[in-house]
Recover the amino acids of this structure.
């Protein structure tokens, strides 16, 4: 039997080293470094609400220098500090865009559309991610628009200007339609942003106006999906309750924009809110309800996969993102 001692190990190691030195070097093929991919994997996330299957789909995100007046009622330095505290790039804000598809078993429903492909290098990804999720755009039965801002309606069109969801009924909130399609309101537009919104709404929707169904708050816009008054951001801004059996989820649309800023500080006025005081009241009412229910919330501008719960936190609220589930 071989005795296992420190001396035997050292002696053996020396012998192996000497043998290795005596051998000619082994020729190995050179290996090139793997080139970087430079883009993310397709971004979609599935989950269940009762018997309904929902798919959160990323349209991408945009990081921009924070514009002057992005938050109207606090100094820019204070808003920038909040963004930096959320680890956004210094001096900038990141805004994600995340539509949701609801499969009710009877209907395939898309809530909001994002942008058309090619809108920017980091947005307009919805169609590609929808296809990666195994959902054919032609299979969408209903497209529900929460309001008529560009990031929610422009994806109704393809990059070439055709209809992205050719077999779908398109539904828009009646108060928003009345506001944005009013020539009188357009003539009163106070700034370039508002003028642009009026022009964009007409460009995207005017030639299909006869095919757009206008819905009212309190109605089901699709089986199990009820429209909720969330006005303030726009006159007809709408959130949704998705209910199946005893399960319920809230689709908040733009009740808040960037949650790291406007959920934590619900009294801040984002530049995009047409009636900032009403939007502020809506935020508090909506999040008080969501916190009391411990409701799951889908946020169009939440970080992907854009799902979480909201809790009261001092004078504001905090977002508790969901834990990723590989199966459900």
């Amino acid at each position: 039997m071989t005795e296992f001692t420190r001396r035997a190990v050292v002696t053996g190691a020396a012998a192996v080293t000497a043998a290795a030195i005596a051998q000619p070097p082994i020729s190995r093929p050179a290996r090139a470094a793997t080139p970087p991919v430079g883009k993310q994997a397709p971004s979609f996330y599935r989950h269940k609400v009762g018997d309904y299957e929902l798919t959160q789909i990323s349209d991408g995100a945009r990081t921009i220098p924070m514009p002057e007046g992005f938050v109207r009622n606090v100094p820019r330095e204070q808003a920038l500090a909040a963004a930096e505290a959320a680890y956004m790039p210094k001096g900038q804000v990141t805004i994600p865009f995340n539509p949701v598809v609801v499969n009710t078993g009877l209907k395939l429903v898309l809530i909001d559309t994002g942008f058309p492909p090619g809108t920017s290098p980091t947005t307009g990804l919805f169609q590609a991610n929808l296809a990666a999720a195994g959902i054919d755009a032609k299979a969408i039965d209903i497209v529900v628009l929460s309001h008529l801002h560009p990031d929610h309606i422009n994806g109704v069109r393809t990059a070439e200007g055709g209809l992205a969801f050719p077999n779908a009924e398109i539904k828009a909130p009646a108060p928003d339609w009345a506001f944005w399609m009013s020539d009188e309101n357009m003539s009163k537009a106070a700034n370039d942003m508002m003028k642009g919104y009026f022009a964009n709404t007409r460009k995207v929707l005017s030639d299909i106006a006869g095919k757009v169904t206008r819905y009212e708050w309190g109605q089901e816009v699709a089986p199990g999906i009820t429209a909720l008054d969330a006005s303030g951001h726009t006159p007809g801004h709408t959130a949704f309750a998705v209910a199946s059996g005893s399960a319920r989820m809230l689709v908040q649309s733009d009740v808040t924009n960037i949650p790291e800023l406007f959920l934590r500080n619900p009294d801040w006025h984002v530049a995009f809110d047409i009636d900032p005081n009403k939007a502020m009241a809506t935020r508090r009412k909506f999040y008080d309800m969501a916190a009391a229910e411990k409701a799951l919330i889908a946020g169009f501008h939440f970080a992907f996969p854009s799902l979480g719960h909201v809790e009261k936190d001092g004078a504001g609220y905090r977002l508790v993102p969901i834990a990723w589930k590989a199966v459900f």
Q: What stands out?
A: Confidence is low (pLDDT under 50) at residues 8-21. DSSP finds nine helices and 16 strands in the chain. The radius of gyration is 26 Å.
